[in-house]
Each structure stands twice: as C-alpha cells, then as structure tokens.
Amino acid sequence: MSNSQRSLLLTLIISPFFTQWSASAEPITRIPGEISNGKPNAPAPRPEPLVFKVKNTVTRQMQVEEAPEMAGLPPIKGKIQVTVQLVADPGLVDPAPPLPAMPVTDPAVMARLAEYRAKYRLTKIAFVSASVYEHKRTLISCHPNGEPSHVITAWSNLDFNHLSGFSRFEIKGREGVMQTYDLMMGISDMPGPARVKRLVKAGQIDKAPTPPNLPDLAVAGPAFVVVEGNASDPEAMNLLQGMHDLYRNEGPRMEAAYQARMKAQAERRAYLLANPPKPEDVTIQFWKRDKPTTTPNP
User: Fold this and answer.
1) Distance between CA 278 and CA 80 in Å, rounded?
2) Beta carbons within 10 angstroms of residue 240's beta carbon
3) What confidence tens digit (pLDDT) does each residue in 126-141 have?
C-alpha cells in the first residue's frame, strides 16, 4: 500500500471521530454554573435553639415601620411585642484566641501566598456599569480588575439585563487559556423617550445620550461600538469582546433565566399586595458571664 493510500485510509477512519469531537467541544466562552431563575434557594438548616433559664422579663409594645421587600410596595407597619430577658449564663465555649501576627516575609506566609497566586492566577474581577435603554441598547463601562487605566466605554446591541443572575464566567483569552472573570455589575433601566422628554422639560435630567447605529441583535448577533477609552487595550477589549461572545454562546439560556426571574418577581409582588406582611415580634436575651472570658479583648 502506498503512502497516499495509507493517508487516505487514515483520513477516512479518523474523520468521523474528529467531527464528533468538534461538535461536542466546549465553547470558548461559558457560564460554568447555574443562572438564577427566580426560584428561592432551599433555606439553610437552623441550629438547635439554646434553652435559657430566664431570670427577669420586660415586655412592651412598639409601633414600627419597616422597608418593603420590593421597591414600590407600601412599607410594613404595625405593632410588635418587644421582649427583653435577663437569663442565666448558658456557659458557652470561650471564643478562639486571635491568630498570632505573622510578617509577610515569614516562609509559611510566603508559601501560602504563592499557593494562592498559583490557584487563582487566572481569575480576574470584571467591574461593569450598564445603562439599558428600552431593552435594545446598553451603554456599558468596563473596568478590568478595577484599574482606571483600562476603562473602556461602549454601546452594545444587547440587553445587559440578561447578563445577570450569575457571578462568574469564562473566556478563552490570549494564548488559548481559559480566563475566569468574577462579574460585579451595576445595572439600571433608563426611562423611555416619552418620559425622558418630560424629565428634560422639567429640568430634572439632561438630554439622554443617543446610541450610534448598531445592527439589530436578531440580524447580526451581538455587536458593540467603542465610544470612549483605548480600543487597542488588550485587557479591556478581551473583556468587552468576551462578554459579547458569552452572549453568543449562552444568550438563550441567559434570556430564559431573566424572563423566569421577571415572572417570579411579578408573582411575588402580586402575593405581597394581596397578603400584606406584618412586622414580627422581637425577643432579646442577654446575660452576664459567671466568669470572665480567658481571651483578653485586643
């Protein structure tokens, strides 16, 4: 068998497996965990309550007003019972003594820092500020690792409300290495044109910024235009491009989770309006130690 025949046979054998592997390969950007869909998490297990020997009790009623669970709902008002109890010393274990101060040059400290740097060397913090206009355009400002020298501002054709509900994502950065970002984003939905006109006329806000021409998301996919900052900065551009690649790969999942959160929020709001919550009674217990703690306060 000639070399060319061997190459052709090898290609015919390998090709189906290579095609299957390529189709199941991980995307270059992804959200490694779940996205919040509005369902409440399972409550954390509560510790067994301590049983106190009550020495003295004082009770009084108090009118209170608390902030509502959601913005736009009426405050939580009502009378509560406040109970203050002097109890016997339950004999709790003394707190652990403070750790001894160690200089940074200590070999143990240096080894621990080196281990930490090696473990988290590919984790960065993405500080993002996003102003969403009519769920069609977003003015974003990115601060990779919070460094002012890398700040970049851009208009995007994404609704950045969808890029919430998760705190970590991964981007395949330079040299083909996966870069992990911890996302810290402040986001706000800006008023529509009619309300903006009223606010401008009343002198409450300046003229709203006008986004540049961007293709529609449904037609051209995720796109952005840099309007301020250094567009050749690799740190900032890698983050900016990476977030749009992330939407390209995870967009349907992110949008579905966002819609589920909005539905859960509307249902919760309707429930609270139909069943106004009442403030809960409060019980405060305190005691004097039979013996002083063995750990002096610093």
Assistant:
1) 9
2) 24
3) 999 999 998 999 999 9
Q: How far apart are alpha carbons 135 and 12 in whole angstroms? A: 49
Q: Which residue has the tokens 């986001």?
A: 187
Give the Cα separation of 29 and 50 in Å (integer): 49
Among 26-40, 247-261, 265-279, the range scoring the smallest mean pLDDT is 26-40
> Cβ(131)–Cβ(121) under 8 Å?
no
Give the C-alpha separation, 40 to 80, whole Å: 27
If we measure between CA atoms, which residue out of 211, 225, 226, 230 comes closest to residue 151?
A: 230
Cβ atoms of 49 and 17 closer than 8 Å: no
Quick one: pLDDT at residue 186? 94
Q: Which parts of the chain are beta strand (E)?
A: 29-30, 54-66, 76-87, 123-133, 137-144, 152-156, 168-172, 178-190, 224-229, 282-286
CB 167 within 8 A of CB 111: no
pLDDT in tens, 34-58: 999 999 888 889 888 889 999 999 9
